[in-house]
From TrEMBL, chains A, B:
It comes from the Bacteria. InterPro entries: HTH_MarR-typ, MarR/SlyA-like, WH-like_DNA-bd_sf, WH_DNA-bd_sf. Signal peptide: none annotated. This is MarR family transcriptional regulator. It comes from Streptomyces phyllanthi. PANTHER family: MARR FAMILY REGULATORY PROTEIN, TRANSCRIPTIONAL REGULATOR, MARR FAMILY. Residues 10-143 form the HTH marR-type domain. One of its GO terms (molecular function) is DNA-binding transcription factor activity. It holds the Pfam family MarR_2. GO terms for biological process: response to stress.
Amino acid sequence: MSRDQRADDPAALQEALGSFVRAFGLHQPETTPCGRPISVSEAHALSELEQEGELRQVELTRRLRLQKSTVSRLVGQLSSRGWVERAPAPDDGRGVVLRLTPAGQRAARNLAEARRERFSRLLGSIPAHERAGVLHALDVMVEALDE
Amino acid sequence: MSRDQRADDPAALQEALGSFVRAFGLHQPETTPCGRPISVSEAHALSELEQEGELRQVELTRRLRLQKSTVSRLVGQLSSRGWVERAPAPDDGRGVVLRLTPAGQRAARNLAEARRERFSRLLGSIPAHERAGVLHALDVMVEALDE
DNA sequence: ACCTTCTGGTTGTACGGTCGAACCATGTCC
DNA sequence: GGACATGGTTCGACCGTACAACCAGAAGGT
């Protein structure tokens, strides 16, 4: 099948993506694909917080694309694990600022390490000269999905 | 961070993939990304059955990467919607052979159509000069996963 | 033949992530 | 200052999934 024909057959893309999602275990969101006893959403939250240092809860909601109620509970779980601190936002009396505790930073690093191993294997299966293109393509798709 | 550094960092891949999964709404498995009142797993099951015509239940379990109990219930739901028929396997007294009913075939076609539209819109949001690259990147990833 | 083990399916139970709605407090705008 | 919008929390419900127990049929060895 030629390249142009494939571009006109979006179902093939869905097929491939569906297989990918299942192969990665993403259909079971309560365990991370890396085998850690932590949910996918929690892992993403940890990752965002580690990267940003501080994050407004509403911003986390936006990035995770969840309802605010869900994020509230999610943060509550992370907090009761001792991984996240909530502080009142200095510039907005309604807001909450989230930050990782030292224990949370350790957890995030451990998680990142497990993730790194898992994805190293996947990345290793991608020819080196294709890697940048794959990453760029995923960025492009996310951007497209936001419109 | 330069492009090459990023390309060799598995965390970047995870980042990109995580964003994509969330942007696509896959973190909410009880509604299909196409906005249909049908779960992602049901959609996949329908798709597999449409493609294969007939499928042993155990084979569906394998393809969907679910537990057999989950698939049993899943099939029960599709059956009570009148979309799937169960018949005893001719060569194995334990087995169950699944097949789409006419209504199920219609549902599968409708679903495929909705999916097509969704992906067409997605493709439409991707700058034309990026499309070939994105399609190619997806191919590469699927290939990498099959190893 | 018989016993054991494996395999495909079903049912019961529990868990957990997500949403929507109701509600409160605070910010914003006319 | 009143109306509306925004950030968070809590409550209730839904649903997909796993695990375990169980049953029935197949497979293989003695």
